[in-house]
Structure formats: C-alpha cells, structure tokens
Design a protein that fits this description.
Length: about 180
C-alpha cells in the first residue's frame, strides 16, 4: 500500500518533468508551447459558455415546470410492475442531462435509504454506468462547431439506457432486490 501512495504522489510531477526534459531535448520551446496551450484553453472555455448557459437554463425549466414530476408519476406504475424502485427513475432521467443534478439526487437517495441499501447501490451503479450525454454533446460538439448531433444523441441515449438496464440487472444479481 505504501508503494501505491508514493507512486501516486510522484507520478504526475515526474511525468511533467519528463515531458519538459524530452521537449527540451527535441529543441521544442516548452514554455512557449505551454503558454500557447493555455491561450487555446481559454478560447475554448469562452466559446462553450453560451452552450453551457443554454443547457443549464433548459434543465432548470424542465425541473421547475413540473415536467420531471409529471413524467415520474406517469412511469411509477410501470416501474413497480417490472420490479424497479420508482425512487431511481428521476436519477435515470436526469443523469443524461446533468451530472451535478444526478449527483445531488444520488446523495439524497443515499441519505434517505443508505449506501448499502438496494436503492443506494443501484443509484451508485447508475452513476458509474451512464454519462451526461447532453452535457458532453453540448459542450464538446459546440466547442468544435458540430451542429448535426442527431445520430450522436441517439447513440448516447441508447448507451445510457443500456447502462441503466445493466446496472439494474447487475445490482439485482449481486445484492438481491431488498
């Protein structure tokens, strides 16, 4: 265990030092390259701000309008029939939209049901098995100017659905239902 601690402490500084020494050996202006990369990073950050603001506003409207609650009430009977806890549904719906909102929901589920409960384990597994699809597409596609996202949205949401189904199956097989 001590070796891993030492390795994790020194790995990043050694890697950065190696890159600087290798760049100097290859006669690459390392400091100038670093500064140029910083400039590009700032330009990208400023270019994605409108996309982030738009996405955050859309999430707020979705939740504040009551649409999320309406959708959850609509799904509740179906989820009960197939044996999925209805408490998980908001997390499964919000996870592709917002990582922070999903993390907040996961924290609430943990506080309410406990981390070792079926719901707590399922929430944790869903968090790790899915991605913030709309965030990724908005930020990264927006940063490089891609406007046609239709197929990427479909594939991303399909991957999220598969992740949620796999999480339900795996947690049920390993830990039972209650």
């Amino acid at each position: 265990m001590a070796i891993i601690s030492i390795l994790s402490l020194w790995l990043v500084p050694v890697l950065i030092g190696f890159i600087l020494l290798y760049g100097t050996y290859k006669k690459i202006p390392t400091y100038e390259s670093f500064v140029e990369g910083g400039k590009e990073g700032l330009q990208i950050a400023f270019s994605i701000i409108p996309f982030l603001v738009g996405m955050l506003v859309a999430i707020s409207v979705f939740r504040a309008s009551g649409a999320l609650e309406f959708f959850m009430n609509f799904l509740r009977p179906v989820l009960v029939v197939i044996g999925v806890p209805p408490e998980i549904a908001p997390l499964a719906l919000i996870r592709p939209i917002s990582g922070n909102a999903a993390l907040g929901m996961t924290s609430d589920l943990m506080a309410t049901y406990g981390p070792d409960s079926f719901i707590g384990r399922l929430a944790s597994t869903i968090q790790g098995s899915t991605d913030t699809t709309f965030y990724v597409l908005t930020v990264y596609f927006g940063a490089v100017g891609i406007r046609k996202m239709g197929d990427a949205v479909k594939v991303g949401l399909l991957a999220d659905l598969v992740g949620i189904i796999a999480a339900i199956i795996v947690v049920t097989l390993f830990f039972g239902t209650k």
